[in-house]
Specification:
Strand content: 15-25%
Largest sheet: 8 strands, mixed
Number of strands: 8
CATH architecture: Alpha-Beta Complex
Distance between the termini: 22 Å
Strand order of the largest sheet: 1-8-6-7-5-2-3-4
Helix content: 25-40%
Structural class: alpha/beta
Oligomer: single chain
Length: 254
Amino acid sequence: MPETAAISNPAVRVSNHDFPYGISVFFPAYNDAPVLPGLINRTFEVLRQHARDFEVIVVNDGSADNTAEVLSQLVLMHGDRLRVVTHEVNRGYGGALRSGFEAATKEFVFYTDGDGQYDVAELPLLLDAVWPDVGLVNGYKTTRQDPWHRIAIGAVYNQFARALFGVKLRDIDCDFRLIRRSLLQRANLISSSGTICVELVKKIESSGTRVVEVPVSHYPRLHGSSQFFRVKSLFSTLGQLIRLYARLVLGAGK
């Protein structure tokens, strides 16, 4: 069984450029143009202080706003260390994550959402938790800064998915993750919706690697709206969860 450890106060490294592995950082983006300049610029600041070998990737998942134009300007600013993967049509959250994972080339992959609800400045907390036997460092929200209905639905979804799949991780819904890329290559992820997070965590825990959890901050969404908390999306996600359970737990379709 995988070992899951929780870190309440990770040790902070004192030197710069101290993460000993290459790291790919990517963001799935859907109509996140107002947030992206600050997010990307802050990401480069953090990486220059804490990593020698890094790349930044943004997956533009069929955005209908001016995300493409904003990203073009950011590429001019940051050069070839910033790459953009463009979906001409929206492929869903799972499709965006899979494209980001496939585009990553470094030993570790970090991702968080492009909507600014997590602070990339807290990435060093995850970097500090990496040891040779650690395959996943996952954040968990100390306080969720969302409307009450989103908090309630998210809590029910998290507990339901953990119980259904036997997942030990306390916060499946926290998309602030640092993953060893070799595990992603073996995972063969296929989900196209938000259920990809359940699939990802379940497969990593089943691999027997060590999983570490780190508390992170969560902030209100300032722009746009969640695609998950709509009636149609919820029913679609429930159906995908059931199909995922049949495949991963019951072994159907193998």
